[in-house]
Specification:
The chain has 459 residues and is α+β, with helices and mostly antiparallel strands. It has two domains: 142 residues, 60s Ribosomal Protein L30, Chain: A (2-Layer Sandwich); 278 residues, 2-methylcitrate dehydratase PrpD. It contains 20 helices and nine strands. The strands form three sheets. Strands 5-2-6-7-8 form a five-stranded mixed beta sheet. A hairpin with a 5-residue loop joins strand 6 and strand 7. Helix 13 packs across helix 18.
Length: 459
C-alpha cells in the first residue's frame, strides 16, 4: 500500500487526528453513502466505542461527529460556521445537508457514548446509522479511526488485514521495511527523499507536489507563529494556561541581553512544539505529523533547523518532509501511529523518528545515518503510555511534544557522529513498538483510565 506524503501530513483541525478528524471524515463518508442510496432517510444516529467513547468528550469527538454529519470536513473546517451549525442542530434537532432531505438528529439522544467493550476491529470504533420515518435503522456502517486521520470501514479494515495491506504498491521504490529502503537506496544511488519523490510522481506532477509540500509547511509554520502569540486558558476544564508566548517573550529578552546559556536551545525547540500543541488543544488548524497529538514535534525540529542551524536553507524543506513521511509510513505500515492502539510511543515516538530522520537528511546524513537517527529517536520512546488527563490533548501531551523534539534533534546529532552502523535496526525497533503496544494494558492506551489521567486532579 502506498502512503503519500500527503497521507502522512494532512491539514486538519485539533485536538485529535484519531478522535476529532477521523470521526469527522467517517461521518462525511457516511453522507456519501446515503446520497448514493435509493432509500429515503428520515433521521441519523451514532454510537462511539472504545477510546472514542472513553476520551471522546475531551477530544471533541461528539462535536466532530455531528459536524461531519452536517457536511464539515477537516481540511476546510471553519470554526465560526461550525459553532453556528451546532447551535442550530441543538435547537432544531435537525440536520440539513446538501443532497439529502432534512434529517432528524437530537444530539442528546441520538449520539451515544458506549462504554462497553471496544468493537473488534480497533480501539477507535464508531457506528453510524440512518433511519426511516418510524425510527427503524435501514442503513448502517461501522468505521474505525486508525490514527493520523485515517479511516476505514469494517470491511476495508478486514480486507486490508487490519489496516496493513499486503499488496505491493505500483511505484518505482515499493519499500515496506527499513531494510528494503536501505537496499533500494544502495542499488539505486538515491536518497530516501529522492526515492519518495519518484514514488509520489506516479500520482502527481512535480508542480503539484511542490505546491502541496509548500502548503504543508506554511500551515505548520503559521501554527507555530499563532501559538507563540496566543494567550489565555485552554478549553476543557483543566484550566491549563497557554505558556508558549511567555516562554517566547523570555527567550527574546534573554537574547537581547546576550545572556543565553547553551542549553537554552532546548527551550526554543520546546517552545516551537508547545506552540503547535497549544493551538491544537484550542481546536486550531494543524497538520497531522503523523497525528494531531504529536503534531508539534516535526514542525519544531524543522523550525529549529531553519532558524538556528548555520547554513540551513528553505530549499531543503521538501527533502525533510519527504524523508520524514517515508519513516512515518514504515511506522504506520508495520506497527501503528495510533495512541489508542499502541500508546504514545506510536504518536510522539513515531513523530520523533520522522523528525530525526528529516533533520539528519538535510544535515547531509547518509541513508544509513538517517535510518539510524530514526531508530535512536523511536527506541527511546518505547513503552510510552497515552494517559491524557480528562481525555484532553493537554497534559502531558503539550510538554511531551517539546521533549520529543529535543530527543529527535539529539538522535540526529548522534547518528551524524557515527557512520550509520548500529546494533538495533529501525525495523526491529518498529516491531518492538508493535509488540509493546499489543502487550500494553488498555488503561494506558488513550482511555484516560490509568497513569497520569487518574493520578492528577481533573479540575
Amino acid at each position: 500500500m502506498f502512503l503519500s506524503v500527503f497521507d502522512m501530513f494532512k491539514v486538519g483541525v485539533g485536538p485529535s487526528s484519531s478522535h476529532t478528524m477521523g470521526p469527522m471524515v467517517a461521518a462525511a463518508r457516511f453522507l456519501a453513502v446515503l446520497r448514493a442510496s435509493p432509500f429515503h432517510f428520515h433521521g441519523l444516529k451514532a454510537s462511539l466505542h472504545g477510546s472514542l467513547a472513553f476520551t471522546g468528550v475531551g477530544h471533541a469527538t461528539d462535536r466532530a461527529t455531528i459536524l461531519g454529519l452536517s457536511g464539515f470536513e477537516p481540511a476546510t473546517y471553519d470554526a465560526a460556521r461550525a459553532d453556528v451549525a451546532l447551535a442550530k442542530i441543538a435547537e432544531s434537532h435537525q440536520i440539513d445537508v446538501n443532497g439529502l432531505p432534512p434529517l432528524h438528529f437530537d444530539p442528546k439522544k441520538d449520539l451515544v457514548f458506549d462504554y462497553g467493550p471496544a468493537l473488534s476491529g480497533h480501539a477507535n470504533g464508531m457506528i453510524l446509522k440512518a433511519t426511516d420515518a418510524q425510527g427503524d435503522v435501514i442503513l448502517q456502517e461501522t468505521y474505525y479511526s486508525i490514527g493520523g486521520g485515517f479511516v476505514l470501514t469494517a470491511a476495508e479494515l478486514e480486507a486490508a488485514g487490519g489496516g496493513k495491506s499486503k499488496v505491493k504498491a505500483d511505484v518505482p521504490y515499493p519499500f515496506e521495511t527499513a531494510d528494503e529502503m536501505l537496499a533500494m537506496a544502495k542499488s539505486s544511488g538515491q536518497s530516501i527523499a529522492q526515492m519518495k519523490l519518484a514514488n509520489e510522481l506516479k500520482f502527481r506532477t512535480k508542480a503539484e507536489i511542490d505546491a502541496g509540500i509548500a502548503r504543508l509547511w506554511e500551515v505548520m509554520n503559521n501554527c507555530i507563529s499563532r501559538g507563540m502569540v496566543g494567550e489565555g486558558i485552554l478549553p476543557g476544564g483543566l484550566k491549563v494556561r497557554r505558556r508558549a508566548k511567555g516562554i517566547h517573550d523570555a527567550l527574546l529578552a534573554e537574547r537581547g541581553l546576550n545572556m543565553t546559556a547553551p542549553h537554552t536551545i532546548n527551550d526554543w525547540m520546546s517552545l516551537y512544539a508547545m506552540a503547535v500543541n497549544e493551538e491544537n488543544a484550542a481546536g486550531g488548524q494543524v497538520v497531522t505529523a503523523p497525528t494531531n497529538g504529536a503534531a508539534g514535534v516535526l514542525p519544531a525540529v524543522l523550525r529549529y533547523y531553519l532558524d538556528h542551524v548555520p547554513g540551513a536553507s528553505t530549499t531543503k524543506i521538501a527533502d525533510f518532509l519527504l524523508t520524514a513521511s517515508a519513516i512515518g509510513g514504515l511506522c504506520k505500515h508495520n506497527a501503528s501511529i495510533s495512541g489508542a492502539e499502541c500508546g504514545c510511543q506510536a504518536e510522539v515516538g513515531s513523530a520523533a523518528a520522522m523528525a530525526a530522520a528529516g533533520l539528519c537528511a538535510v544535515m547531509g546524513g547518509t541513508v544509513m545515518q538517517v535510518e539510524n537517527a530514526a531508530e535512536i529517536a523511536l527506541e527511546h520512546h518505547l513503552g510510552m503510555t497515552c494517559d491524557p488527563v480528562k481525555g484532553l490533548v493537554q497534559v502531558p501531551c503539550i510538554e511531551r511534544n517539546g521533549l520529543g523534539a529535543i530527543k529527535a534533534v539529539s538522535a540526529a546529532s548522534l547518528s551524524l557522529r557515527g557512520d550509520g552502523e548500529h546494533l538495533v535496526s529501525l525495523d526491529v525497533c518498529i516491531e518492538t513498538m508493535r509488540q509493546t503496544g499489543h502487550d500494553m494494558h488498555e488503561k494506558y492506551k488513550e482511555t484516560s483510565l490509568g497513569g497520569l489521567a487518574v493520578n492528577v486532579p481533573n479540575c
